[in-house]
């Protein structure tokens, strides 16, 4: 690793930290990833995880992941790595980074029961800061933005989220009249019929923080603690039964 690279990354490290080395680590569909070996100000060694990506979509990806993981960690610190920083390279303003605690994990799925227990606790205790559905920054599913604007009802938020999914699909694959018809029918008939009763007639839903993209590629087990760990979050405050 060259001296300029160390200087660029060190500006985002905890104060007083010193980089010992940066090593390629893991794989990602949309980013380059690495493990950073550091020494903290008090002499304690600490490993960090780095993600680097490019352009405006990449910038939205790392900023959204930073805010998502920060929100999750503040509620469930044992379930997630600690977010440290995100930013843009000083001498390459099209290149962006996300930095977090490095967690050594097994190459397998976590145990089902403790994972579901910890996710259930997250969904039971993480209230929306303003009582609304959404998130305070854009978050992405892969390279596509998901709907995050603050919304008062679950029906409205879910409908706008589904609409955006169909719009992203149309931009990617082109117009399909049958799919467009199905989308309109879903939004005008199915969504109101199923979701409106949840928040009418005196009923109420409390928006909860969710990871947003739980699947086997974003979950594992922390080798040090033997507890489940989740990462690559794309958070929203949503219905507590969402993932």
Which characteristics define this entry?
globular; two-stranded antiparallel ribbon; alpha+beta; five-stranded antiparallel beta sheet; 11 strands; 243 residues
Description of the molecule:
By secondary structure, the chain is α+β, with helices and mostly antiparallel strands. It has five helices and eleven strands, in the order H-E-E-E-H-E-E-H-E-E-H-H-E-E-E-E. The strands form four sheets. Strands 1-2-3-5-4 form a five-stranded antiparallel β-sheet, sandwiched between helices. Helix 4 packs antiparallel against helix 5 (177-195). It is globular, with a radius of gyration of 20 Å. The chain starts with a helix and ends in a 5-residue tail after the last strand.
């Amino acid at each position: 690793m060259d001296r300029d690279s160390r200087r660029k990354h060190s500006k985002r490290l905890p104060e007083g930290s010193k980089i010992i080395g940066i090593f390629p680590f893991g794989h990602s569909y949309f980013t380059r990833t690495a493990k950073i070996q550091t020494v903290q100000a008090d002499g304690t060694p600490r490993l960090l995880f780095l993600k680097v990506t490019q352009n405006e979509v990449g910038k939205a990806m790392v900023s959204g992941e930073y805010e998502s993981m920060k929100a999750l960690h503040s509620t469930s610190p044992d379930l997630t790595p600690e977010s440290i920083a995100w930013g843009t390279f000083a001498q390459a303003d099209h290149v962006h980074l996300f930095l977090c605690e490095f967690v050594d994990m097994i190459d397998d799925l976590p145990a089902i029961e403790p994972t579901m227990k910890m996710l259930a606790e997250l969904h039971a205790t993480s209230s929306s800061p303003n009582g609304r559905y959404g998130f305070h920054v854009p978050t992405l599913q892969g390279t596509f933005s998901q709907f995050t604007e603050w919304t008062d009802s679950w029906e409205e938020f879910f409908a706008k989220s589904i609409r955006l999914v169909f719009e992203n699909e149309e931009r990617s694959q082109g117009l399909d009249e049958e799919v467009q018809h199905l989308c309109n029918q879903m939004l005008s008939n199915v969504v109101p019929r199923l979701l409106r009763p949840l928040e009418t007639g005196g009923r109420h839903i409390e928006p909860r923080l969710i990871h947003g993209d739980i699947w086997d590629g974003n979950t594992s087990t922390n080798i040090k603690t033997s507890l489940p760990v989740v990462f690559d979050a794309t958070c929203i405050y949503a219905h507590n039964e969402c993932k």
